[in-house]
Fold:
Amino acid sequence: MTGETESSKRWDPDGRDAFYAELDHPADLFLEVWGADLPTLFENALFALYDQLAEITDFGTAHAETIKVEGPSAADALRALLSEALYRFSTGGFVAARAAVSVEQAGSGLQVSAELHGEKADPTRHTLLSEVKAVTYHQLLVVQEPEGGWRATVLFDV
Amino acid sequence: MASPVPQQVSEWTWELPATGAMRVPGLVYADHKLMELLSDDQSLTQVANVAQLPGILCRSLAMPDIHYGYGFPIGGVAAFGVDDGVVSPGGVGYDINCGCRLMATDLEEKDVKGKMPKLIDQLFRDVPSGVGASGAIAKLSRAGLEEVLVKGAAWAVEHGYGSKDDLQRTEDGGALPGADPEAISDRAYARGLDQVGTLGSGNHFLEVQTVDKVFDAQAAAVYGLREGQITVMVHCGSRGFGYQVCEDNLETMGQASRRYEFDLPDRQLACAPVGSPEGKRYLAAMACAANYAWANRQMIMHLTEQAILHALRLSPKDLNLRLVYDVAHNIAKLETHEVAGSPVKTCVHRKGATRAFAPGRPEVPAEYREVGQPVLIPGDMGTASFVCKGSAEAMRQTFGSTCHGAGRVMSRSQALKRAQGRAIDRELQSAGIVVRAHGRKTLAEEMPEAYKDVERVVAVMDGAGISPRVARLRPLGVVKG
Structure:
């Protein structure tokens, strides 16, 4: 379940239906994310978060940031990764338009490293869409599908 | 766990019998129509989940604006014994002390007629709103922020933003005791430094209203409200600071729950005994966030006053903007309540629920004590808000609590679909409501159809005698984040 994604091209929001979908929830933002392998799943989850926060096609990719997190399970590692990305957006305005993720086994848990390429949001040039308050633990799930591939559900407080 | 089956036990209440791991029954306040809305979501399961937590007293309660949240339902009230119960950050939520503040003026509807677009534009400019809104005042130093966390609304008043009377008319005087700046992470400090005095985004708003109908003339007079008067309401909370406090403590509470061997049906219900190191630390940090929110709403009141004076070219004396009351609706409080005939020290969690204390309670400001605590229930963007009053019935039935708003009934994505091809701002305009918002998306997500009927929600709590109606406030103009 370890590996890494290729950081070759920026995310295309027109293709979002292939990466994630919004599940029904009366108040919060409940997302289902898919990926062929675990690193791709994590990368697609990052895309889903940034796609909700901002019009990511407006963003350049000149600035790079690295996020490293650990978790006792894939679900915890995913939540930690998204939570860190959200923290950096909240404090420094950083929005990524592409990313490469690597996942390694660390003891009984997982170590995730994400190389993000994006830029700081500038209200005069960029469109911010929704405030996301937090990444919750509610119905947090990462599973390997019987027919292959991985699936995650994450509920964001908005 | 299968969705529990509610059984109607009175005209306004439905019981979820204690089954499985539930320590107490659940009790939902609703009418038939509101109950039907709950049949296809998981909020009743969440009421039952909360009933499983250690030390829960009497019942796991749900107000008629209940909807599916994370962990606790929104619209949930649960009290735990201080000696044998727990405190849970998930029972408060991320936006700690999200709440509502109502201001009265000496203006009448005729005084703002034709001036609403100008007034709302000015408020939109002067009160920072939207995603990541900041910079209402100069960025605070860490020491400055620490002072905010301890003093709450009094910090703003000391700096010239408001008067001492405002503090009397704020729940807990605008500052919870026990706030400990040492319990706050560097991350929360980083997020809090430049957001005091900002509205934020989502369902938060600043609204100019008129008193549309008075139901209880005596209470309205005591609260200083009369028909035709212009009022202003603000709905917001502790911004990124509060979200970070919740996040930090959920992590430690998750570990604590495992250590105390709590068998939790949902990770978001992570909790610790009230008196444990983790429990005390959370309450100390939560008090900081609550105080941040009170300082925030006090600052917003000042910015609001300045904006109105400027837009309408009035003197402060002519406007006479004054605080009616300020209530929290996402909070955990240490309160003494009567349980089975004896006073018991409790930790009451109100997540999307408002305190509604009875006449005579010392916590109610002296000037309002004869009629009970003002309860502020904001509606959604296009509909009315309500002022109600606390009651002895609330003390008996709901640990002195009531509903907090309309409650969502439609997901944001459904609302976006429903709004396609429509101009929600123009629809509101033709209904006589001027709206300014940062994005069309927020407007669509927050459209009136996405919410339950607030009149119906308020009528349930009025009918049950928990929070009788005092006045209805009709929106004239709204600033949305």
